[in-house]
Every structure is written in structure tokens, then in C-alpha cells.
């Protein structure tokens, strides 16, 4: 046999196998998505998302405390109002007494070392359930949408968020938010993570159950990207870099590993996040329950593929498990 034919000598030991990765998984790569609702004592199971709940702020300490002890480094908060008065411009999004702003303040005081990101969108708070402000004909009205989203992001920053992460996919919102942060003196106090390549995916179903954020008419295909749109995703990533994003994100993750790899090349000097979304998480659980594979093995394979594609940060509902598995 030729010398050049033999590769197995290089990975015959568990340690030499681990060296084959360019980067190893670490606990700090994981950001845990958390649903915060406006019933202060809530701890409501979400049936389509195994193990995940909608939390009230009075329950955060007993839930997050043990995870911080295990090495939880960061969370991303999603507001899930059940009782608020929704309107066309999503006024409750930055209500100072609303669940997100209350949760930011509470977590900052309880866990000074915990990095707190906030999803920024209007759909959980608008009467029509779309992510922006609409024209009368139901299409997106871009400029007031960007203005409103920038206001919400700034108010989360003022409440103490370390990072704001707009998921709305309105054109020009990265520039709008960055400008608003700078003009208010938060340019050096708050990170801007852009959901740059967010695709219109079938994998958001469990999240919509959890957040009650399905649009009341139509769909989001005029602002989220078409699944086959590689070129558009590349343009969106490059645009958001130019507009001032500090972190680029690709969402969902597993069906879009080529886009993660593209982002790693196009935004090579930025941290690169990917979101292992609700449907990916539910799918891995469902497959394991059906005996297709072992849950832990598949969870590792899924996130290792994301790191291999270039991700440096993973938003995942598996975060609590990885805090145990990586100990
Ligand atoms: Zn939205």
C-alpha cells in the first residue's frame, strides 16, 4: 500500500481524534434562548419543545441559578406576552413594566457575570402579528418599522442588555439600530447581533407555539429569505457587516450549513452565530424517541457540524444539557 493511502494512524486514539477539529466545543459557545412571559409566577411547559417553559420573572432565579452554577455564560430573552394590549406598532415591546425589560433588570442584579442578549422584534406585540409596521394594504412600511425597532432595541440597551439582536428582517434596521445606540451614548455599551440570514423556514413551528406569534394574515416570506436563496443570504450578510453589525447570525442552522460557511468567509473578522431553532431541537428529540439515534450523540453531531462550518456561537435549547455534557 502507498504511504499516501494511510490516514487511520492519525486518528486511532480518542485524543488524536479530538485534534482533528479546528476548534473544540466550549460552554461559552452556547447562548440559551429563554421565554419570558407576563405572568410573574409562570412556569408553563411548552409541549412542542421538550423541557422548555415560559417563565415568569419570579421564577427566574430558581431556574437560571443552577445553570449559572454549571457555567451558563449567556442567555437570549424572548418576550412572550399573554395579557398585554397589542396594537399595530407593537407598543408593549418596550413597556418598562413588560416582561423583557423587567427580566433584564432582574438578571443583571442576580447574575452580574451573565451576558444578557435580547431578541428584538415586533411580532409578539403587534395586533397583526407581523414583524414590522404595515401599510394599509398589509405590506411592510419600511421606514417606520426600522424606527420602531430601533427604539425598542435602544430601550433594551438602556435597561441593561449587553446585546440586542433584531430578528425582524426589515431592510436597513442594522444601520437604524446602530445609529440609535451611538446617538444615545450606547455605541460602546451594547453589542448588535444581526439575524442576517434568517430564512422563511418550516422549523419555527414550536417557537410560534411557545411565543404565540403566528401572523394573523399572510406569512413572512416578503421579509424572511427564501430557503434556496444563497445569493440573497450572501448579500444580506455583507450588507449587515457594512451597516454596523457586531455579530452575524444564520438561522436556522442545520439545513443552512453552507450559508454558515459562506458567512465565515464573508464576515471572517466577526463572531458568527447560528440558531439551532425550535424545530431542529424538536426533530432531534423526536428522532431519539423513535429510536433512530441516541439523543446525546446526535445533539453533539449537530452542533459540531455548525462549529465545523464556521460558527463561533450557538443559540440552542440544548444549552442546559451541554453544560452537563461538557463538564
Ligand atoms: Zn418577528
TrEMBL record:
Please name the pathway. Answer: Porphyrin-containing compound metabolism; protoporphyrin-IX biosynthesis; coproporphyrinogen-III from 5-aminolevulinate: step 1/4
Superkingdom is Eukaryota
Keyword terms, alphabetized: Heme biosynthesis, Lyase, Porphyrin biosynthesis
Q: Which Gene3D superfamilies match?
A: Aldolase class I (3.20.20.70)
Q: Which Pfam families match?
A: ALAD
SUPFAM superfamilies recorded? Aldolase
* Coiled-coil region list: none
> Is Lyase included in the keywords of this UniProt record?
yes
Give the EC number(s) listed in the UniProt record.
4.2.1.24
Listed InterPro entries: ALAD, ALAD_AS, Aldolase_TIM
Instruction: Please give the subunit comment from the record.
Output: Homooctamer.
Q: Which PANTHER family match?
A: DELTA-AMINOLEVULINIC ACID DEHYDRATASE
Q: Which family does it belong to?
A: Belongs to the ALAD family.
Role according to the record: Catalyzes an early step in the biosynthesis of tetrapyrroles. Binds two molecules of 5-aminolevulinate per subunit, each at a distinct site, and catalyzes their condensation to form porphobilinogen.
Name recorded for this polypeptide:
Delta-aminolevulinic acid dehydratase
Annotated source species: Hohenbuehelia grisea
